[in-house]
Amino acid sequence: LTRPHTCAGYILAILSASLLPLQSPADFTPKIIIEAFKCMVPAIMMSNYANAINQLADVHIDKVNKPDLPLACGDFSMGEGLAITIASLLMAVAMGIMLRSPPLVIGFIIWCIVGGAYSIDLPPLLRWKGNPLMAAVSIICCNGLLVFFPFFIHFQKIVLGNPVAFTKPVLFTAAYLVIWNTACNIDIPDVEGDKAFGLRTLPIIIGKEKVFSIAVNIMLMAYGGVVLVGAFSPSVLCKLVTMISHSALAFVLWRQAKTNDPSDNKSAKSFYMLTWKLYYVEFFLLHFVR
User: Fold this and answer.
1) How high is the pLDDT of residue 94?
2) Distance (Å, whole) CA 182 – CA 198
3) Membrane-crossing residues (predicted)?
4) What's the rounded Cα separation, in Å, for the pair 159 and 17?
5) Is the dihedral of CA 141, 144, 146, 149 positive or negative?
């Protein structure tokens, strides 16, 4: 029930989180590689949990928006979906305990709570996806901060035994994850089903075109901010890589946005997948922000 593009993002986030705490090339040992692979398994399990519980709660909506999903098309029964959801969560938490990592266990528990609150229809406190503000908070947490910071702290404190230090690249990553996940998870392709079942997402409230324009401008401003940060880097290599690469990515984003039609679901989905590819690239480039 998981989605390959989200798993790929989580894997890259973990790889970046494992490298950022390293203070010298000597710190890069086989242990780091092994620990990174160990962490990928519970992260993918949490991805399974979040996607599965969302599909369980939204099976009626997905029959309109995403009829090819396993539960919506009948490949899995609701009982099988529930079993996968529970098993994925328990396996992730169990692996965090086996790794003797409080940051991972705490992160997975928060992930469980936020992911459930986003999807479960239990008014008045839950079903956050129906509230634009709470939906943004959920996405920022589950697709952003919780995919990175528990793993970063795990590697810095548990694996390397160093005190937790939030360096410039780490703070940049936090800002990037908040801004990017706010902008790119706007559910434009899902408007028809969401509207039919009474959800009040931002594209429904103010329109697809307006939301698309706001999202693109936020992402372009984010790239502009990174270019500005790069301009003040003391390292010539980091300065050049940061400024040139993010200028190029901004151009790609701008060019694709100019030809995209947010009113067309196929076009909107294509642009959404582009934002994920840009998201992947950033986990490599963030190491040059110095």
Assistant:
1) 93
2) 22
3) 81-99, 105-126, 133-153, 211-229, 236-254, 270-289
4) 12
5) negative
* Shared-domain flag, residues 191 and 287: yes
Q: How high does pLDDT run on average in the chain?
A: 90
Lowest mean pLDDT among 74-78, 130-134, 258-262: 130-134
Q: Are residues 65 and 161 in the same domain?
A: yes
Contact (CB, 8 A) for 59 and 72? yes
Instruction: Give me 276's structure tokens.
Output: 């994920």
Distance of alpha carbon 107 from alpha carbon 89, whole angstroms: 12
**Residues 194 and 186: beta-carbon distance below 8 Å:** no
Range of the structural domain that residue 187 is part of: 166-290
Question: What is the rounded distance in angstroms from the CA atom of residue 57 to the CA atom of residue 52?
Answer: 9
Q: Are 277 and 220 in contact (CB under 8 A)?
A: no
Whether the CB-CB separation of 193 and 61 falls below 8 Å is answered with: yes
| CA atoms of 77 and 33, how far apart (whole Å) | 37
Contact 104, 154 (CB under 8 A): yes
Q: How far apart are CA 1 and CA 98, in angstroms?
A: 25
Q: Which CATH number goes with the domain that contains 86?
A: 1.10.357.140
Reported in sequence order, the residue ranges of 96-189 that DSSP labels E, i.e. its strands, are none
| Same-domain check for residues 95 and 175 | no
3-state helix, strand, coil in the chain (%, to 5): 80, 0, 20
Residues 147 and 197 in one domain: no
Q: Are residues 153 and 17 in the same domain?
A: yes
* Residue from 170, 145, 271 nearest 219 by CA: 271
Which is nearest to 275 in space by CA: 247, 261, 256, 290? Answer: 256
Average pLDDT over residues 192-201: 83
